[in-house]
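Exercise: predict the fold of this chain.
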Amino acid sequence: MSESDPQELPSIDFSTFVLSLSTTALYQLGLVPDPETGAAVTPNRVLARQTIETLEMLRDKTRGNLDEDESKLVDSLLYELHMRFVEAGK
């Protein structure tokens, strides 16, 4: 793909990756609409829990290797996801 190709994906770094996982978890919780249709999605708490646990694993496995901003990002995303997960279960 060329630089002018609109289908080309942006480069990915750690922060972009964890933000993507976080958005996926929100989608799985039914808190983000389908990006193509804009329709609400049926929550799947099992998949959301697995995605949140994947982020926890990444945090644990990368501990000591992240810069301060990356570490804060992961911690804040996990906090927000845990709160949303609990709220979605009510």
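Check your answer against the key: The chain has a mean pLDDT of 91.
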